[in-house]
Amino acid sequence: MPETPDPNWRIAQITLDEDTILWRSADIEQERRVAIFDLIEENSFRPVRASDAGHNGPYHLALAVQDGRLGLTITNPEGALLETLILGLGRFRRPIREYFAICDSYYQAIRKATPAEIETIDMARRGVHNGAAELLLERLEGKVETDFATARRLFTLICVLHIKG
User: How far is CA 103 from CA 12, 25, 37, 62, 97, in A?
Assistant: First the structure.
């Protein structure tokens, strides 16, 4: 059984900049709901500068994309700003495109493909998702200590912010 994470180092609430999201299908909306639910249920998140300055969690996190950059605004439960991280998204363009393409194939397959075909596409989808989560962990290094499962869910939400309709 995995060790229970420190209750202070976690995300208690997450919001997405709804102005960034222009459109989402029922499938994408379901992915968003599941990612947020799973993230809140179990995550590990310690913003290094904020925690080193004595700001213990749990944290509230707001995600937004603006001018090709991801903004992670971290506040305490009372809404006081603890820190804002800005990550360039250039290195995420390809994984996001690949993830959208493989998800589209997956959603089509679950409606008409054989179980073996669905499993093959799902394995490819997990592979793209895992690679993107590793990239996110790399980009957060020195800024946020988190785990792989949290990074995967955050990547799903980053993708939701990139839907253009």
Answer: 28, 12, 20, 24, 10
H, E, C per residue of 27-90: HHHHHHHHHHHHHHHCCCEEEHHHHHCCCCCCEEEEEEEECCEEEEEEECCCCCEEEEEEEECH
Question: What type of residue sits at position 47?
Answer: P
Walk across the sheet containing 59-66 and list its strands: 11-16, 59-66, 69-75, 81-88
3-state DSSP assignment of residue 8: coil
pTM of the predicted model, to two decimals? Answer: 0.86
pLDDT higher than threshold 60 for residue 132: yes
Mean pLDDT over each residue of the chain, to the nearest integer: 87
Residue 84, strand partner residues? 73
Both tokens of 5, joined, read 């994470």
C-alpha count within 13 angstroms, C-beta hemisphere, residue 138? 10
- Asked if the bond preceding 2 is cis, omega within 30° of 0, the reply is no
| Cβ atoms of 21 and 66 closer than 8 Å | no
52 near 4, Cβ under 8 Å?
A: no
